[in-house]
TrEMBL record:
Region (Disordered): 87-183
Quaternary structure and interacting proteins, as annotated: Homotetramere. Interacts with MAPK14. Interacts with KDM1B at nucleosomes; this interaction stimulates H3K4me1 and H3K4me2 demethylation. Binds to mononucleosomes. Interacts with GATA4; the interaction is required for a synergistic activation of GATA4 target genes transcription.
A GO CC annotation given for this chain: chromatin
6-phosphogluconate dehydrogenase NADP-binding domain location: 264-423
Family the entry assigns: Belongs to the HIBADH-related family. NP60 subfamily.
Basic and acidic residues compositional bias, start-end: 87-140, 157-177
Highest taxon of the lineage: Eukaryota
The protein's name in its UniProt record: Cytokine-like nuclear factor N-PAC
An annotated GO BP: transcription elongation-coupled chromatin remodeling
Residue ranges of domain PWWP in the record: 24-83
UniProt-annotated location(s): Chromosome
Domain 3-hydroxyisobutyrate dehydrogenase-like NAD-binding: 426-546
Species assigned in the record: Cnephaeus nilssonii
Amino acid sequence: MAGKALSCGKKPFFSPFIPQIVNPPKDLKKPRGKKCFFVKFFGTEDHAWIKVEQLKPYHAHKEEMIKINKGKRFQQAVDAVEEFLRRAKGKDQTSSHNSADDKNRRNSSEERSRPNSGDEKRKLSLSEGKVKKNMGEGKKRVSSGSSERGSKSSLKRAQEQSPRKRGRPPKDEKDLTIPESSTIKGMMAGPMAAFKWQPTVNEPVKDADPHFHHFLLSQTEKPAVCYQAITKKLKICEEETGSTSIQAADSTAVNGSITPTDKKIGFLGLGLMGSGIVSNLLKMGHTVTVWNRTAEKCDLFIQEGARLGRTPAEVVSTCDITFACVSDPKAAKDLVLGPSGVLQGIRPGKCYVDMSTVDADTVTELAQVIVSRGGRFLEAPVSGNQQLSNDGMLVILAAGDRGLYEDCSSCFQAMGKTSFFLGEVGNAAKMMLIVNMVQGSFMATIAEGLTLAQVTGQSQQTLLDILNQGQLASIFLDQKCQNILQGNFKPDFYLKYIQKDLRLAIALGDAVNHPTPMAAAANEVYKRAKALDQSDNDMSAVYRAYIH
C-alpha cells in the first residue's frame, strides 16, 4: 500500500510512503475519528496511524508511483518491499519443497510396506477418490490448503507469543481488527476498488495472493515483530505525575502521512523556533493565521499560504487554537495582557497554547487569566534549536488541559518528533528549565575543555575526535565543537536565551532550597560572554568568554 501524498494545489508536498499494517503497542491509543490502521514504513522502520482513505494497494499502483516519484527515499522503500516479497516467496517455495519431499518419503515408505494385491490397490483407489472428493469440497471453503495452514500457523504463533489470555479483545483494540468482507463493499469505491483486504482470523481466506498476504501483515502475525521494531522509536512513558508520550519518534516519515486537524490554527511569534514550526504546520496542510511584532517576518509565510492577523487579539478571536512562542516571561505576559493582546480575543472555548520557555509562576498566572475568561490553556515549551525546528524534530513538553493536548495532536506531530504530557500547569516550565540548565552547563564545559586543550598545547580537533568516539558522542557535541573550531557563531540557539534559562533554573532551585552550583558557575561564564557582546550569537560563543 502507498500512502497518498499530501498536496496543496497541483504540487505535492511529499512523496508517498509504503507502509505495512502491524499491531500497535498495547498502550498506544488509537486516534479518534475515521477508521485507521497502525503501520510500519518500509525503508525507514518508522510507524504511524494512517486513515483508510489514504491507502492504496501496492501492486495495483506500483508502476504509476515509480514513474511519478523519483526520490531516493521512495526508491529505497520500493526496494525494501521487493526484498520483503522475495524473502516471503523464498520461504513459501522452501516450505512447498519440504512438503513435497516429506510426501515422497511417506509414499515411498508406504509402497515398501503395502501388500502387493489387487484388493489393496482397489481399496487404495477408492480411498484416493474419497480424498479427492473431500479436497474438492474443501476448495469451496478455502482457496488452498497452504493458505489455510499458513493462517493457522501464524495464528498459533501469535497466541503462543501474546501475553494476553484468550477471550475478548480489550475495548481499545476492537477497532484495530481489519474489516470483514461485509464491510468492505462500502469502502471500495474510487481508488480503493482494487484493494484486497486481509480477512480477519475468523473469516476464510478467499483468492489469497500469498505475496500480497505477506505484504499486508494481518492481525494474525507475531506481535513481537511490531514491538521489536517500534520500541526503539516510540517512547511510552508514564510516571506518577501522569506524564505520557505517544508521538512517533521520526517525524520525517510520520509527518508525511498525518491528517491535519480541521481546526483553525493561529501562531504568534516568528523567531528562530516559531518560523520553523509555522513552516511545518503549513506543509502538513494546517490552516494557519500568523502574527509577529515585526510584521515583515510574516511575508514569507503569507506566500506559503498563511493568513495575516493584524493583532494577537484578532488572531485568537478568529482561530480555534492559538500557539505562541516568544523570548521570555516579560514578552509572554505582554503578549497576553498588553493592548490588543491575547486576552482580549479569548471567549469561552477558545484555546491558547504557550510554547515559550518561561518560569512556572509566569505560566501559572497566564493560565489563570485565560481560564477566567472561559478559555482553555496548555503550556508546551519545546526542546531543540533552529535546525530541529525547521526539520520538524522538536521535543514538546506539555502540561495543563489534557483535552487540548489531544486536540493539538496533528500540530505536535507536524512540529516535533516526540511530545510529553506532564500533568498540571507549571510542570512543563520546570522540566524545560531543568533540560536547558543541563544543556547550557554542558556547553560551557565543552568550551572550557577546548580552551584548556589549546593553552596546554593539545589539538582541539583531536580532542573532538576523541570525544566523538566516546560515551559523550552526540550531534550536539559535534555541532557546537565545529562551530568553535570554524569560528562560526551564527545563532541556532541564542546565547542570551540559554543564559536566561540558566538564571530561571537557578531561581527554581532557590525556591525549593536546592543547590545548583554547576548551573551558577556556567551562568557566570555566559554573563561574561554577554558582556563581550555575544548575546545575539549562538550559545557556543560562550567559548569567547574563555579566550578574552
